[in-house]
Amino acid sequence: AADGNRPRTIARWEFFVVEQFDSETFNRGWNFNVGLAIASAQKSASPEITDGMKVEFDCAVIQDVDYLPEKGVDYSDCKVPTQLSAEIDRYNWKTPYMSSAGGIVGMRLEHWRKINGFGNDYFGWGGEDDELHHRLRLNKLLYGDCYPFCKNNNDPHIGEKGISIKRPRKGHGRFSGKFMHSMNHTKRITDSKAYARNVKMLQEIEKGSDRWKRDGLSNLAFRILSTATDTSDSDLGITYHHIKARRGRDSFDLREVHLAVPLALCDDSGAGADGWSVAPVGEHVPMDITALRDFATAALRRAGGTCQTFVSKSLSFILVDRRRGLAKILSDGDPRLFVIFYRSLRSPKSDGLIIADARSRDALHAAHAKAGAFAVPPSELSICTCPLSSGGPKFSIHQGSMCSGGGWQSMPGGYLRAYAKPRADFVAVTWCDNEKYWTQRVVRGEQCDKKWAGLKWVHGGTFYAARGSEFCVGTRQHTNEELSFSRVLAQERCESDDGYAHGFTFSGVREAPTFSSVSMCAGRDDAGR
C-alpha cells in the first residue's frame, strides 16, 4: 500500500559480499543463499561453516550492488517479506511490473526458510526474481496490493492483499542507479541456452511445480575458499564479510596448485642451470602477477641462488590446465586472466600448473605458434529479429548460436562465426546499443558514436569478420527515433524503399581451427634438480 511507518535507525549492519569462485555464469540466487547460510550458520550447506560464524539479525536483505538507496529507505522493514526497491529511477520510479520481486528484497530468516530461499539453478540473467514471487505466492506470503500500479484512487484492488509482494509507502522505496552503471542492469543475456533453461524452470513453477521445496537452502552445497572480515567501520556498527565460495561438496584448495620455476632464471643458482623448482604455492596463494613474481623469486632463492641480478618484474607465466590440455599466457597486459585461470580449474592439485618464463608475451605467442600449439578459435554469433507494431522488425546481434529469448528470433541464414580479437585483413564490425528502445546500430570499425539520431549509444561488442559479401549492413535514420537502427541481412545489398541505406558487407569465418597439442612437463631428476 502507499502508506506505512517511517524508517527506524539501525544500530548494527552485517554486509556479506559473496564471490562465486568458478567459471560458470553468475548465479544471483545461489550467491544470496550462500551468504544467508553463512550468516545463519547453516552447517549442512558447507563443512567450513561453524557456529562461530552465526550473526544475530532481524532482517536479511538481498542487495543489487548497482542500486543505491535514497533517504527514507528502511532496511529494518521486514515484518513480512518486503520489496524495499519499490521506486527505481530507470522504471520511472516504479517497479518494472506488478509481480516483480527483484531488486532489493528483505525478509526475516523464518520467511526465507519457509520459501527455501532462492532457486540454486538460475544461471545468468533472468528468472530467479520472478520465481521468488511464486515462492512467496505458494507460501501465502504476498502482502501487497496493486501499488504502485493502481489505476487511480478508486481502484478496487487498493488494500487487497495477496496481489504482489509488500512494498514501502511512496517516497520510502527510492533506489537510484545513476552512479552505478544502471544502464547495463537489464540486458544481460549472454548465454541463450542458460536463459532458455531459466524460462523453462520459471514456467514450471508458474504452473504449480513443487520443485521449490527441493531446490534452495535445503539442497545448498558449497565450499568456502576464503573469508575476510573488515571492522574498520565498527564505530558505525558496520562489519563487512568477503567470502569466496565454490558450488558443490568437492574439495577445492588453491594452495595445491603447483608452480614450476626454471633455476636458469637465476644465474647464480647453486642447483645448476638445468634444474627446476616445482612445489605447491602453499599457504599464501598469490592472486595477482606481482605476488606470483615474488613467489617465483622466493622459490629461486630457496633453491640456493641469491639472484642479485634477477629482475622478477619481467617474468611471464604459462597457466596450464592439465585436464583440458590448454594453456594461457599471463603477463602485465591482462591481470584478470590469473583469477579466471584459478576459477576454471576443476581440481587445483591435479589440473593446475603455473610455469615461470623469462620471455615476453609476444615471444611466447610466437613460440607456441611455431610449434603449432597456439589456437584462437572463432566465436559464434547470431543475427536476431524482433517484430514491431510498425516499421519493423528490429535487428540485434547476439553472442552464441541462439538468440537470447525475450521475443528475439533467429534470422534465416543469420548464424556466423567471427574472431573476438583483431586479425590481419579482417573487418572490424561493432554493434552499438541504444538502451531506451533496445535497438542496435552496426558500424564498421571498433568505436561507437555516443550520440546518433538524437539517441545515446553504448558499445555492445566488436567482432572481426572475413572480407566478403555474405552479409550486408544497412542503417536507417528515421523521424521516429525508435525506428532509427541498423539491420543485418544474409545478402549482398541492404538498401531499401523503407529508408535503409547500404553501409558495408562482410562474411563469416568458414575455416575450422586446426592446431596440434603438445605436452609440457616439469619435474626433478634423481639428483633433485
Automatic annotation (TrEMBL):
Pathway: Protein modification; protein glycosylation. The keyword Membrane applies. One of its GO terms (biological process) is carbohydrate metabolic process. InterPro entries: Galactosyl_T, Galactosyl_T_C, Galactosyl_T_N, Nucleotide-diphossugar_trans. The keyword Glycosyltransferase applies. One of its GO terms (molecular function) is N-acetyl-beta-glucosaminyl-derivative 4-beta-N-acetylgalactosaminyltransferase activity. It is a single-pass type II membrane protein. Residues 83-141 form the Galactosyltransferase C-terminal domain. Residues 12-78 form the Galactosyltransferase N-terminal domain. Keywords: Glycoprotein, Glycosyltransferase, Membrane, Signal-anchor, Transferase, Transmembrane, Transmembrane helix. GO terms for cellular component: Golgi apparatus; membrane. It comes from the Eukaryota. It is found in: Membrane. Pfam families: Glyco_transf_7C (PF02709), Glyco_transf_7N (PF13733). Gene3D superfamilies: Spore Coat Polysaccharide Biosynthesis Protein SpsA, Chain A. Belongs to the glycosyltransferase 7 family. PANTHER family: BETA-1,4-GALACTOSYLTRANSFERASE, BETA-1,4-N-ACETYLGALACTOSAMINYLTRANSFERASE. This is Galactosyltransferase C-terminal domain-containing protein. It comes from Zooxanthella nutricula. The lineage of its organism: Eukaryota, Sar, Alveolata, Dinophyceae, Peridiniales.
